[in-house]
Amino acid sequence: QSVLTQPPSVSGAPGLRVTISCTGNNSNIGAGYDVHWYQQFPGKAPKLLIYGTTNRPSGVPDRFSGSKSGTSASLAITGLQAEDEADYYCQSHDGSLSEVFGGGTKLTVL
Amino acid sequence: QVHLQESGPGLVKPSDTLSLTCAVSGGSVSSPTYYWSWIRQPPGKGLEYIGSVFYTGSTYYNPSLKSRVTISIDTSKNQFSLQLTSVTAADTAVYFCARRDGSSSFFFYWGLGALVAVSS
Predict the structure, then answer these.
(1) A36/A92 Cα distance (integer angstroms)
(2) What is the pLDDT of residue A98?
(3) Which of A41, A51, B2, B114 could lock B26 by a disulfide, CB 3.0 to 4.6 Å apart?
């Protein structure tokens, strides 16, 4: 079981908006630690999508955004495109367990 | 542009020690800004943090693996290494090396990954 909880799957039609949740506790997200998000295609290494909860690295479209509230964080993707179909992982620091990842969410573009 | 490249045996026998090395180019493992890390992903499953090493040699491990893991750094060769002892089939995974930001803990640069199977 992952320390951070994500839905196993989400789906949406092209052009629409989807959100992926990441639920932690008071040892990680709730303790104020940053949340980071990664996008991973099959057979590839993860790619940093959002860092520091809300920041996008250069080259990441502004269709991707991150937020946090309490012990949870969310990744929002607007204007969904077929190329967004991938696995998404959240990550944070845990005061007792060092770095922790969510179990991953498979995004399907209908 | 920083590049990381994992290398090591793709097959390890149960109870043996898994050893991987990550060669870094385009950046220095002696930088005081970053931590050099290992993350693994069992087939069809999610990411699991293994641990990190700082240029001073200080290490930080996932408590669930701490008793079996050693991460070391060789600044002269600009590389760092992973050793995982007493492996079982549950340790079969793609092992990624990555650079972790020192202040905010995100992993920006990743290696391509190395599949290590544990089997007799």
Answers:
(1) 6
(2) 87
(3) B2
